[in-house]
């Protein structure tokens, strides 16, 4: 069963959110529109709406994360849900409890939703197949597969600044091969109609046959970002240097680091994005990360609204299915 | 089916009554808050009639409804906007039709998440019987008596008129 099949109920409504791949454009637009409605909640005196009062969301993090976990945590709390944060690496699995047993226990605690972050591709999909029918699963990043809420918050950030996806040139720069963020970005932006999508990086970090997904490949940064509206820089994992895919961080910065000088090749009003955490002086220069074209911190803020939208839609659809 | 209410006349009377109430309560600087969608149209008209300069507050109570666990998230797009500080303000909450009272309850809950108003008056164009909560309006344009299975809806915004729809029981 593909991720798209398990994600939608018989009426085509979102039931789990595992991957952007296979989801229709109308559904992605609906997520963005709902996020637009949740965004102002963060600006109010009481940053909370009562929509998910009485629901319980469990954050199951098998892999460490700060930003994703805290923004899912805040999103659930701003919807008035109760939140459990489980750092599973540090708890039951160390005591020999199997994943299935951990899930059964959380079900017995009457949780309504699991947010899953795991180092293995396909983990969230696997868990969605295992859980009881009244539980929904959101993928908070699985291995090299997808990070769908990051893909949607990046799309939300782009729409806020550039409005119409169908007129944009967007470059994704860096370690595309190992990046679940890049995969989700490509799926989201192609589905939303971006005509000129580029991936830029050394050949060792670009997946083979990626052109089949409708992207152009560049191994020269200057060419890759020329006249772009949006430049998305990816985090370079330190372990890439150890695995001989790259010579050194300095070398990488010289070839692919986004500097103010290079950014001038993009459109004058281009925005610069990064999913975080940033390696300053490796994939991006501090002057750019902190510069006027950077929207990196807005991405964090918008991530809360996007996650609120996805949680509210899924748990609302659960209610609808229960009422039918 | 459209009805024959003269809505302009109703609005004029409502504005006069509201002005009198506000004067009597010593409220010189009220802030109007309309409930989307019909309530915003009515509030906009009252704002003109009362000669208030300040922009309207607009509430979309979708996140405060009490039926989420039955029907999920409402598919409306426009968010709430309260372009003034609610703390200590005298608010005039405006809706088109007061029926069960659930919408007004939800609206008041939302308002209190923006701050603590000094007072809230409720103004409605039509009051339909069928209250399920202890909520009454201070200013009412007209009372509606509808049969079971009949639903009223304000159409607008250029020319406001009331439409009655009948669903088969």
In the CATH hierarchy, what is the architecture of the largest domain in chain A at level 2?
A: 3-Layer(aba) Sandwich
Rg value of chain A: 19 Å
**Order of helix and strand elements from N to C terminus of chain B:** HEHEHEHEEEE
Within the largest sheet of chain A, what's the order of strands?
7-6-5-8-9
Mean pLDDT of chain B: 92
Number of strands of chain B: 7
For the biggest β-sheet of chain B, the strand order reads 2-1-3-4-5
> Low-confidence spans of chain B: pLDDT under 50, at least 5 residues?
none
**Helix content percent band of chain B:** 25-40%
Task: Give the CATH class of the largest domain in chain A.
Answer: Alpha Beta
The rough form of chain A would be described as globular
Helix-strand sequence of chain A: HHEHEHEHEHEHEEHEHHHEHH
Low-confidence stretches of chain A: none
What does this structure look like?
The complex is a heterodimer of chains A (324) and B (169). Chain A folds into two domains: 3-147 and 303-323, Aspartate/ornithine carbamoyltransferase (Rossmann fold), CATH 3.40.50.1370; 148-300, Rossmann fold. Chain A has 13 helices and nine strands. Chain A has helices at residues 3-7, 25-38, 67-78, 99-108, 123-130, 148-162, 180-191, 221-225, 239-242, 249-256, 260-263, 286-289, 296-323; strands at 56-61, 82-87, 113-118, 136-142, 169-173, 196-200, 216-218, 230-233, 271-273. In chain A, the strands form two sheets. A five-stranded parallel beta sheet of chain A has the order 7-6-5-8-9. The longest helix of chain A has 28 residues, at 296-323. By secondary structure, chain B is an alpha/beta fold. Chain B has one domain: Rossmann fold. Helices cover 27% and strands 27% of the residues of chain B. Chain B contains four helices and seven strands; from the N terminus they run H-E-H-E-H-E-H-E-E-E-E. Chain B has helices at 7-24, 38-50, 68-71, 102-112; strands spanning 31-35, 57-59, 90-98, 119-128, 139-144, 150-155, 161-166. At the A-B interface, helix 2 and helix 13 of A face helix 3 and helix 4 of B.
């Amino acid at each position: 069963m593909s991720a798209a099949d398990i994600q939608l109920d018989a009426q085509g409504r979102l039931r789990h959110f595992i991957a952007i791949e296979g989801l229709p454009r109308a559904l992605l637009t609906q997520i963005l529109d709902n996020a637009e409605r949740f965004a102002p909640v963060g600006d109010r005196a009481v940053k909370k709406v009562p929509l998910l009062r009485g629901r319980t969301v469990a954050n199951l993090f098998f892999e460490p994360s700060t930003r994703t976990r805290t923004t899912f945590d805040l999103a659930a709390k701003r919807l008035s849900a109760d939140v459990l944060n489980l750092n599973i690496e540090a708890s039951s699995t160390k005591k020999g409890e199997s994943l299935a047993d951990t899930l059964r226990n959380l079900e017995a605690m009457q949780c309504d939703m699991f947010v899953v972050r795991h180092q293995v591709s396909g983990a969230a999909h696997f868990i969605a197949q295992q859980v009881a029918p009244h539980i929904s699963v959101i993928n908070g990043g699985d291995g090299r597969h997808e990070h769908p809420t990051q893909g949607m918050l990046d799309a939300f950030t782009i729409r806020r600044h550039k409005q119409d996806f169908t007129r944009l040139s967007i470059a994704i720069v860096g370690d595309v091969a190992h990046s679940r963020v890049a995969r989700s970005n490509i799926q989201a932006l192609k589905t939303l109609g971006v005509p000129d999508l580029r991936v830029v990086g050394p050949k060792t970090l670009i997946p083979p046959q990626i052109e089949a997904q409708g992207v152009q490949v560049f191994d020269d940064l200057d060419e890759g970002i020329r006249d772009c509206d949006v430049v998305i820089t990816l985090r370079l994992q330190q372990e890439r240097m150890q695995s001989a895919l790259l010579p050194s961080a300095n070398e990488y910065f010289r070839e692919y680091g986004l500097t103010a000088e290079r950014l001038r090749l993009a459109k004058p009003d281009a925005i610069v994005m990064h999913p975080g955490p940033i390696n300053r002086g490796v994939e991006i220069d501090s002057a750019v990360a902190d510069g006027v074209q950077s929207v990196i911190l807005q991405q964090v803020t918008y991530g809360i609204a996007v996650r609120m939208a996805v949680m509210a839609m899924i748990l609302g659809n659960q209610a609808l299915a229960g009422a039918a | 089916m459209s009805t024959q209410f003269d809505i302009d006349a109703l609005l004029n009377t409502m504005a006069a009554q509201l002005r009198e109430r506000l004067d009597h309560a010593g409220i010189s600087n009220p802030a109007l808050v309309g409930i989307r969608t019909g309530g915003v149209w009515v509030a906009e008209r009252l704002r003109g009639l009362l000669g208030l300069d300040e922009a309207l507050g607009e509430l979309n109570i979708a996140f405060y409804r009490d039926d989420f666990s039955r029907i999920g998230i409402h598919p409306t797009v426009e968010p709430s906007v309260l372009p003034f500080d609610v703390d200590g303000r005298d608010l005039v909450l405006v809706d088109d039709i007061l029926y069960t009272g659930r919408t007004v309850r939800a609206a008041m809950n939302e308002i209190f998440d923006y701050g603590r108003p000094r007072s809230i008056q409720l103004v409605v164009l039509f009051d339909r019987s069928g209250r399920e909560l202890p909520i009454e309006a201070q200013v009412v344009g007209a009372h509606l008596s509808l049969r079971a299975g009949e639903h009223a809806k304000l159409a607008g915004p250029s020319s406001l008129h009331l439409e009655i729809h009948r669903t088969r029981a």
